[in-house]
Batch of 4 targets.
Target 1
Amino acid sequence: MVNADIPEASWLSVGDLGRSAGDICFWLLIAIVAWAPFPLGSNREWSWGLLTILVSLCWLLWAFWAAAAPKVQWENLRRAWIPLLLAALTLIWAVIQTLPGVPGGWIHPLWTSTASIIGHPIAGAISLNRWRTANEAGKLATYVAIAWLTFTLSRDEGRASRLLNALIIIGAFYAVYAFVIALSGTQQFRLFYAMPATLDLLSGPFVQRNNFATYEGMAALAAAARLVALGGERIQVSKGFRRLALTTLQFAFGSGAPLLIATILTVSALVATGSRGGFIAAFIGLAVMAIFAAARSRGEKRKFLISAAVVGVLLIGLLVWISGGLLSERLLDLTVPNAEPLRRIEWGASTRMIASAPWLGLGLGTFQDAYPMYAIQIVPYIMDKAHNDWLEFAAGLGLPAAISWWLAISWLVGKFLRAFFTRRKNRLYSLMGIGATSLVAMHSLVDFSLQMPAVALTYAVLMGLALAQSFSSRAVISSGSA
């Protein structure tokens, strides 16, 4: 039988080139995911610039692949046009914030005040700092590009599995790397800059331990979900305790050993960071995944999931105890009233920013520029982050554009939920998308990890991967099959 979607003979060489480009693009994507955390989370101008170049090269390869199978990409676009449109509206508004030709009533008064002080006219804009807003808009666009690449490349089930394995391996590698450099008495910061780093807690390739906690938390979610899913297939629960113990040991020291090691490493690194927000957010992500998995299961499988959840809680408790009490003490600090005065100051300034420009915003990424105008208390620090991505995002973009972005993510989560409860296979990916979103949403309430390119990129990959496997594989017309 001849497949109507197979290109004509005259296009055969282009099709071969496209398939090769697709394979190279896929492995380059994995290389980008592996590289992004190493240069301080790619949160320096030079490392961010290099990451942008790599992503652009990946997109060039993707274009060759897409040209060889245009019907596939149109089908992909048909399935994901709603979140793409919502994200595009947010990006368009961020660009408008940097333009000088907006209506005069939209321009922030700071531009007019500055012009009167220097005695020279200035072309004002909505954003307090055009460069920062343009830079942050470029980052958001890159995350959308990575999510789209992952989505289109991972529609193939084999690629999706390889990418998930790669994410787990990369997360486990950086966990080991973090312990190695910590034991050696150095930090990643000192590998790139001569000035000494001031933080001495486990931060791996990142500068801040909180950002590393979010990164390792996502890796731990992926490893634990994969471990439990595979264990559910190999461990026999319904044939007595002896058979249960035997199959568990066979799994733990056999096919499940790599995933078990990866889970222990990533969770250990998460605990060792001492990040309260990162630990609680990751625990909530795991709990959400466990609740949904138990709700979807029946009979013996539900018993297995409950048992796995109990073992997981005991393992986490053991790792917290082994950590020497650092995380335990920091968690107890949360019970002290007004334990985070600095964050409260930042949150108060953020809410005043939103109230002053709820529709237009002050410019994406301009919290540091805006803070002195909205602060009511002087502190001896550079206040460049609000320690709440929700408030800072809304203050920068304005509520309409921020809500448009959040609606795009909500649409994806809704698709994951539907796929998890309706699909018979590959529900693991949808579950990870739900868990990862729960993690970053909770941690973003008290921190700014999603502003780190490596963290945001990894999250975008997980979202693209989850969306790719939220549709029936029978609907996939991959370039490989073509």
Target 2
Amino acid sequence: MTDLVRRQLAQSIETMSQVLADDIIHAAVVEAARITAGAMKAGHKLLVCGNGGSAADSQHLVAEFVSRLTIDRPALRAIALTTDTSILTAVGNDYAYEEVFARQVEALGQTGDVLLAISTSGNSPNCIKALKLAHTLGMHTIAYTGNGGGKMKPEADINVIIPSSVTMNIQESHLALEHIFCMLVERFYFGEDFGSKPQHLAE
């Protein structure tokens, strides 16, 4: 069993090492943060969606924006489209599960907002539909994916593609980059010296 632990950790580290060495990923995360901070400063918001573990990531990331990541600051406008079970089940039942995010984008999205869709496969039909609709509304679109980007790649303005086909390793890298994305948005929004303030210890 300890061999399994070592093997899985080595695989995780290998994926993260590839992400660490990939300047294209780094530039995409920075650009996504710049656009998101600009949208927020202009009074717009971030919408985030995904399925399964990516739904949990959506909620996790939005919590960092609305509460805080490491430093006290004003709340930032962000909404997870994965949390309202009445909406999700009503749309899934009355229309189709493929529509559960697009319907919310239609209701909540406005020109100048940002949609971040998260999918390890890059092929989630409900994320694809949400991205397509966001474009018609004049929203900025970001995709966090793996597997080469999948069908979501051409639907997003900015792609953060993890170089892996292993779901758990993609998710691990997504979470690390989502935290960094939030940190970068804070710096674009509040100033580059934001991170020099004392950080709070975990409670």
Target 3
Amino acid sequence: MIEHPDPVGRNLPVRSFLRQTHAALYRATGGRVGHHVPRHPPMLLLAHLGARSRKRRITGLTYMPYGGSFVVVGSNGGSPRSPGWAYNLRASPDVEVQVGRHKIKVHAREAGEDERQRLWAEAARYHPAWGLFQQRTRRAFPIVILTPRRG
């Protein structure tokens, strides 16, 4: 395992700009652009509230379909810290996602340890970059299941 003090730090401004631009394009086109990116798994937009600020945030995330739900992985590019959205979902798990043109109210929950191990193996096969990011840190990535809510 390669342990970097901050594996994404030097590229953070560029990555942040690209993520913000992607999310803006996704929203501006109503999901017609941005859901599918060439040579990349599908992406969704997660609308969540800041745990402390209570400000609305929009984050573009790669997802893995899971039955009628969506699995997202808090890899944060292999950074030593979990992404902010993972902390935010712990504080306020009832959120909304946009998957392509569809907006869906979902409930977020982190996978329990047994489910997490099973899902991690599947997720690393589904999106090999997650496996590469895991090699950069000792931190176990949060695996979050976003399940559609009724009503």
Target 4
Amino acid sequence: MKRATAVISLLLATAVSPALAAEASESASWDEASTMFRKAVSRQAWETQAAVARDPLGKVISRKVASKQLTHQLPGAPDGTYVVVVYNTRLVHKEHAQETVTMMLEGGRFRGAGYFIR
């Protein structure tokens, strides 16, 4: 449970291509997520958490890459190949948001390992 909490807080609400993050359904994003994410968070928990985090903010108006970083270590996650992308995002009900999308290389492609918005 502690590991799941760490993964959720590090990574929280999407697991698809960053460009499609806000547009994808929670269920589809869970299906495309990394194995690590799916083991840490059940589909039902993900759908609930994603809706709680994103629905009140409304649709994305704009999203611009603020930074991107390739790394091989993340707190609470196994060593691997990760890309952490930070977006400056404008939503209908939140003028200045920051989304952090973490992707993990698995099976030859990057899969969602987590999402956090503030």
